[in-house]
């Protein structure tokens, strides 16, 4: 019951932010989630002999989001990340054993790339002309795929998917793809109904249905990869959950692991569509 209530509350908050929120609300909410997830990542990274400072991770995550704001130049983001990497390298160089300097600096920088940067894409996607239906499409595909994999895998899973996560099965993986496609189509057809009968274009989608299906599959496969990669990190750290912040779900990182890969995958698709002047979503 805790799992269902927590999920329902999170879905309500996300949908409200998508359709009723302002840009600063999306950015602030994404930044807050990124900070909490980065803290959990820090605990996993430091579970061994690593010693990445919390102040560096907090400041680095905030800096990544700072350069997504309208008044800042996005081209300065890479130099800023380079400076943060050098600061961490210098910090570890003077404080850690020499054989830990490179691994600790690499783990810290990877944390920003793995946790912080993907979440900066959420407000950036929302700010597009087709941002609201696109962001809802992304979330619904991730949620539906996760739910389908969980329940079908538990009941019918017989063939193990990967050593990275022993509880995942091929049956659950296939059901996950189907769940994302069906959920994505539900968003598409809901947009058509709202546009046709009520003149409301908030969910109106211009691209052909087959492109929406293909996009749902891409998002789902990326989401499943994200889930497996986080499982690998947790198994390497010797823990079951990344934290206990969400009742019934574990930690923040456990809940957004799929999104951390799905969002960049969607962003890459959008960049390709824009580059080749393909239809808008």
What attributes does this structure have?
10 helices, 281 residues
List the helices and strands and how they pair.
Elements: H1 2-20, H2 23-45, H3 54-66, H4 77-95, H5 101-126, H6 131-156, E1 160-162, E2 165-169, H7 170-198, H8 209-237, H9 252-256, H10 259-275
Antiparallel strand pairs: 1-2
Helix pairs in contact: 2-3, 2-5, 3-4, 3-5, 4-5, 5-6, 5-10, 6-7, 6-8, 7-8, 8-10
The total count of helices amounts to: 10
Spell the H/E element sequence.
HHHHHHEEHHHH
How much beta, percentage-wise?
Answer: under 5%
Structural class: mainly alpha
- Write out the strand line-up for the largest beta sheet, numbering strands in chain order: 1-2
pLDDT < 50 runs, ≥5 residues: none
Describe the main β-sheet briefly.
2 strands, antiparallel
Task: Give an account of the 3D structure.
With 281 residues, the chain is an all-alpha fold. The chain folds into 2 domains: 1-127, no CATH class; 129-281, no CATH class. The chain is 73% helix and 3% strand. The chain has helices at 2-20, 23-45, 54-66, 77-95, 101-126, 131-156, 170-198, 209-237, 252-256, 259-275, and strands at 160-162, 165-169. Strands 1-2 form a two-stranded antiparallel sheet. It is globular. The two termini are 36 Å apart. The model has no long low-confidence stretch (mean pLDDT 88).
